[in-house]
Amino acid sequence: MFRKLVSALAITLATAFAATAEPVRFAVTDIEGLEALQQEFGGFQKELSKLTGLDIELIPVSSRTAAVEAMNSGHVELVLTGPAEYVVMKQLSDPRIVVAWQRPDYFAQIAVLANGPIRSIDDLKGKKVSFGSVGSTSQHLGPAQVLADFGIMYGKDYEGVIISRNVAAEALIRGDIAAIGLNYGHLNSIRKAFPNAAFAVVARGRDLPNDILVARKDIPEEVFVKVREAFLKHGNELMGAVLQGDDNQKFKGGIFITDVKDSDYDYVRSMYRTIGIENFGSFIN
């Protein structure tokens, strides 16, 4: 009888603790608005809550800077971000790495018209090359690094311009620019959007460092361990929940990587240096 009472009391206390425990707040740097965040990560939120026993709460942030501010002010515990954003976030917040989220076929490349005048990477000297979002790993920094790896230097050997993807494709077709820097998925979307045009790739880069989930540096240790072990032991279940989101299909076929360290992102730091940025203390606009 005594043991039953003790057991019942333990269950009651555990339930009361779960009900009163502070939520673990999760943000994503490239999704704006709570509705969009819930659509993409609602299933993941439920699965992570179930596997950890923690109250996982989705918190929308309006920008990369807002995510850093939320972390530094103690308003968010977990942030999923891209590799370029992580490098700056590391400088500003010194977060702890939880796990990397692999994106298969995540590499930068330089695309041209298949029947156009550019036949080799050297043909781009003195020409205009467009990039996507400023500071994007796969649309700006990565393509610039690809060119630099082939000896075509940013701001010196060609004119770099920032143009949105479909507008850049139209400019390429008209002959206003010579090439577009973008990732594999974006090239596929351009091919679908412009079926009457043929595109070719004159240079590809190495696989880019993965997206990464980081935790606030002063997150309670027991919370950090529970979250990390959930990815370590239940990666398949969590990935299945992630893939319920349409935009999250970029992670399809990928895995969660727990053996990851800050130095794995030194390649991203070299990309920043390629475009002339030596200080990683602020996001570029």
UniProtKB/TrEMBL annotation:
| Keyword Signal appears in the UniProt entry | yes
Could you tell me the keywords of this UniProt record? Signal
Compartments, as annotated in UniProt: Periplasm
Has UniProt tagged this entry with the keyword Signal? yes
Main localization of the protein?
Answer: periplasm
Annotated SUPFAM superfamilies:
Periplasmic binding protein-like II (SSF53850)
First and last residue of the signal peptide:
1-21
Q: Do you know which Pfam families this protein is assigned to?
A: Phosphonate-bd (PF12974)
CC terms in the record's Gene Ontology section: periplasmic space
Q: Which family does it belong to?
A: Belongs to the bacterial solute-binding protein SsuA/TauA family.
**Name of this protein:** Phosphonate transport system substrate-binding protein
